[in-house]
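From the methods appendix. Each design record in this collection lists the tokenized structure first, followed by the designed amino acid sequence. Records were kept in a plain field format so they could be parsed without special tools. The example shown here is representative of the layout used throughout.

RECORD:
FOLD TOKENS (662 positions):
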């Protein structure tokens, strides 16, 4: 069953529907039969006026006013959509003859249209000549025609819409507008529309949670607003840049509030001069991920098994923490530069080969591997490629286009063997991201963590002699080979000669966790958390594996005992004595058989081994939780000096460039 789709409405139509909720011509408002008439017939009142009837008209009006003003009244309605709605209803009680269409339109100074499925600001709003505050939030506006906005508007809120173009908004804006709210929209560029030429009186500007990325360009446009004092840019990708707050404060010296935080004199002092160092303010973010420790990893089954383990295969288990993040911008550019240099070398070698008479693909160059170019698609091992939509498809509208898939690469700590003291990884990784919109989307989804185990089996390599050796341990003549010498010196020499063949690692996911990182979009710089991971379904711990192996071993022992008892029983084998002895043994075995059964039953009744084992299992405490201690930091500059790279870092970069050239 399809859900009904709400019809598209205009702003003035939504205003009229809200106006009808006041019931200005219905009880208790308006001039109806429920009101006492002010003009009475003299013949009816000449001899009937008493003290009881005196002032009844006033009391009736007060009662009607109480119906309107009291919040506990059944006739109370919602007045939140305008500051003048309640006053207009009181006028409809006191002086209903004043309620006309022009009076209503002239009465409103504030109007809020929230979540009314508005798609267009129509010309009907011009009928409100004294409107000063217009709020149209949580609707479906894509563009706003400033010609349809009353010129008296001083506050214009257009938050939580789908506005992506500001051209029509700046054609003829209200000249005295002081606040403009454009947060939670799809604005990716300001161009020349948010400048002092269009908004000379603008004091406050909200551009939060849009798609603005170019910090230097945006700040240059906003610096032309002569009276700007309050600015909100939080939630844009540019706010993830380390020098975002410092560069904005130093560039807009008249600014008092940035992202709802007062700008102190110390901040202005610490960031002084940063606006002149634009070459250091890059459109990239830097993250530091630290994984300190992990607890609750179960011991491997080799340590829990009570039976003697065989010599081979040798089991090696390593444990590590893996997380997925966007690819590091710096490492990616280095890899691309290396590939370009390799391609240039290959081209030079091909030219030399052609010059020497060995064309490409000849005998001399047949064994040479072709260079592999690492592109953005091929470098991501874990990304899932999805078919891209056809832009020429007429059925595909912009609202139905799927969001771009994030290309993530795995990062992992070093592998550590199991220890009772716990796992101290002490892992730290700096990641530089230049794709700021992708980083914002990544923060919305969160970081996927997983604790993994690599299991590698090692066996001795099979030599040619062992493979050609005939069965039975005999040589070619059919004789047994002499046993190898058992001297200690021989053993010591043979031990290092054993070559082990390692199998591919078997990866087991012990637990997963999704770390919430949306706080970085809201202005946080550090998230430090101890994550309690959830176990994967279908995976068994080391203790469970050991118990399974023990159960398999006990079952096999029981089966062997049963087989042995059957073979040793008189029915299972023939007696060596006379037939009488065998018959007597059979007859004797029938009668006293009940006595040992009773003893055995009495011995088992107080508490059998199974019941004790089950009690121990019930009393056993649950395993400790699987936790990982992780901290993620978004770098931000606290002073202007942090923008200048230190000398040691510059030296490292110089050495790195030298090694790349070599």
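DESIGN:
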């Amino acid at each position: 069953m399809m859900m009904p789709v709400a019809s598209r409405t205009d702003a003035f139509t939504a205003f009229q529907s809200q106006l009808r909720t006041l019931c200005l011509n219905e009880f208790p408002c308006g001039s109806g039969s429920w009101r006492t008439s002010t003009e009475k017939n003299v013949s009816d009142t000449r001899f009937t006026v008493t003290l009881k009837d005196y002032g009844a008209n006033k009391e009736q009006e007060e009662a009607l006013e109480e119906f309107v003003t009291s919040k506990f009244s059944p006739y109370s309605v919602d007045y939140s959509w305008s500051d003048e709605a309640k006053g207009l209803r009181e006028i409809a009680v006191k002086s209903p003859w004043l309620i006309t269409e022009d009076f209503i339109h002239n009465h409103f100074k504030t109007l809020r249209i929230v979540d009314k499925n508005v798609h267009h600001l129509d010309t009907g709003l011009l009928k409100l000549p004294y409107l000063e505050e217009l709020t149209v939030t949580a609707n479906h506006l894509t563009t706003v025609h400033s010609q349809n906005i009353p010129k008296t508007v001083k506050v214009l809120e257009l938050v939580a819409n789908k506005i992506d173009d500001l051209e029509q908004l700046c054609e003829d804006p209200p000249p005295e507008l002081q606040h403009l709210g454009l947060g939670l929209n799809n604005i990716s560029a300001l161009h020349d529309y948010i400048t002092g030429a269009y908004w000379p009186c603008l004091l406050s500007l909200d551009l939060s949670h849009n798609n603005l990325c170019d910090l230097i360009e945006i700040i240059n446009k906003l610096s032309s607003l002569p009276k700007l004092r309050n600015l909100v840019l939080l939630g844009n990708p540019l706010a993830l840049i380390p020098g975002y707050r410092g560069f904005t404060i130093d560039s807009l010296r008249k600014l008092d509030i940035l992202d709802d935080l007062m700008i102190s004199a110390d901040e202005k002092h610490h960031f002084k001069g940063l606006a002149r160092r634009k070459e250091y303010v890059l459109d990239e973010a830097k993250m530091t991920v630290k994984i300190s420790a992990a607890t609750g990893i179960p011991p491997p089954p080799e340590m829990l098994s009570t039976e003697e383990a065989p010599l081979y295969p040798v089991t090696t288990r390593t444990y590590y923490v893996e997380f997925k993040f966007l690819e590091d911008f710096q490492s990616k550019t280095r890899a691309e530069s290396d590939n370009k240099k390799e391609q240039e070398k290959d081209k030079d070698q091909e030219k030399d080969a052609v010059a020497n008479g060995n064309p490409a693909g000849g005998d001399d160059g047949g064994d040479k591997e072709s260079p592999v170019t690492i592109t953005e698609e091929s470098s991501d091992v874990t990304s899932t490629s999805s078919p891209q939509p056809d832009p020429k498809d007429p059925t595909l509208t912009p609202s139905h286009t799927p969001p771009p898939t994030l290309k993530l690469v795995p990062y992992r700590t070093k592998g550590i063997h199991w220890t009772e003291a716990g796992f101290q990884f002490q892992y730290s990784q700096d990641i530089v991201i230049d794709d700021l919109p992708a980083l914002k989307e990544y923060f919305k989804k969160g970081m996927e963590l997983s604790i993994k185990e690599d299991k590698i089996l090692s066996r001795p390599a099979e030599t040619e002699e062992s493979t050609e050796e005939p069965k039975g341990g005999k040589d070619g003549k059919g004789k047994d080979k002499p046993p190898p010498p058992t001297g200690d010196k021989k053993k010591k020499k043979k031990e290092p000669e054993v070559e082990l063949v390692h199998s591919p690692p078997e990866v087991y996911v012990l637990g997963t966790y999704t770390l919430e990182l949306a706080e970085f979009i809201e202005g946080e710089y550090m998230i430090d958390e101890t994550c309690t991971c959830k176990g994967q379904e279908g995976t068994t711990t080391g203790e469970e594996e050991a118990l399974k192996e023990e159960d398999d071993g006990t079952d096999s022992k029981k089966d062997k005992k049963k087989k042995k008892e059957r073979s040793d029983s008189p029915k299972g084998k023939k007696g060596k004595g006379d037939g009488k002895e065998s018959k007597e043994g059979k007859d004797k075995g029938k009668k006293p058989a009940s006595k040992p059964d009773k003893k055995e039953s009495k011995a088992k009744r107080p508490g059998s081994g199974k019941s004790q084992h089950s009690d121990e299992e019930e009393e056993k405490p649950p395993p400790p939780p699987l936790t990982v201690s992780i901290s993620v930091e978004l770098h931000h500059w606290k002073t202007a000096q942090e923008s200048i790279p230190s000398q040691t870092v510059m030296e490292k970069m110089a050495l790195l460039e030298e090694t790349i050239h070599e």
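APPENDIX NOTE: The mean pLDDT is 75.
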